[in-house]
Amino acid sequence: MARGAQVTSIDAVREMAAVLTSFRSEMAAALDELEMEIRRAQEWIHQDRKQHWDNEARRGMERVTEARIQLQQAMTAKRVADHEPSCQDEKKALARAKRRWELAESKKEIVRHWQRTIDHAVNEYRGARTPLSGWLEAEVPRALAAVERLAQSLESYVAVDIPAGLARPMEMPAAGAVASVARPGAEDAAPMAAERQAPAKPEDSNENRPGKSQIPNPKPQTIPNDQSGQ
After folding, report:
1. In the chain, how many H helices and how many E strands?
2. Using alpha carbons only, what angle is made at residue 157 by residues 152 and 161, rounded to the nearest 5 degrees?
3. Residue 4 CB: number of other CB atoms within 10 A?
4. DSSP state of 226
5. What is this structure's pTM?
6. Cα(211)–Cα(207) distance, integer angstroms
7. What pLDDT tens digit does each residue of the chain (230 aa) get?
């Protein structure tokens, strides 16, 4: 569920945009520098070291071949009858040439190993870097545009002139009015309750009715006693 943000300063919104822009620039520069370092490492292992040890191995093989020829020449020149000469110097030179050639061959194998290892690590890094690069190239510009629109909207909102009538503070209604608004029909209910509690008024007599003639009440007549025969 989306929630509103409590923005108290437009300058803070623009500062956030500036910080995001600076972060994007610094991150892009760091990625570019790291990419250059990776390329230098790959060139060094794929070209410089490979060419160096390939050349060393080739020269080593040439030295071995030359040392063997010198040894054979020495043995032929120094052979006396059936006695085979020692030729210690030529043999030592041949051994040194072989060791240097074997070292170059082992270095070539080490270079091939690190070529595979570095290429694998670079591929993993570039696979992990792709989402970040995409975010920096696509998402951050969209976020900056959204922040800029937000800042402009806030500035436009602040710049709106409020009419004088709307700017005055609202008057608080009276307590009775609040009660009547809070409970509709409360004003009519009080008189009705009073009428129910008041005693019933006697009906007006004929003399109190307007437009009616007043008829006097007949006086009671006393009947005299019949004194004649009684």
Report:
1. 7, 0
2. 135
3. 5
4. -
5. 0.54
6. 9
7. 556 656 677 788 888 889 888 999 999 999 999 999 999 999 999 999 999 999 999 999 999 999 999 988 888 877 766 667 778 888 899 999 999 999 999 999 999 999 999 999 999 999 999 998 889 888 888 988 888 888 888 888 777 766 655 554 444 444 444 444 444 454 455 555 555 555 555 454 444 444 444 444 545 444 444 444 43
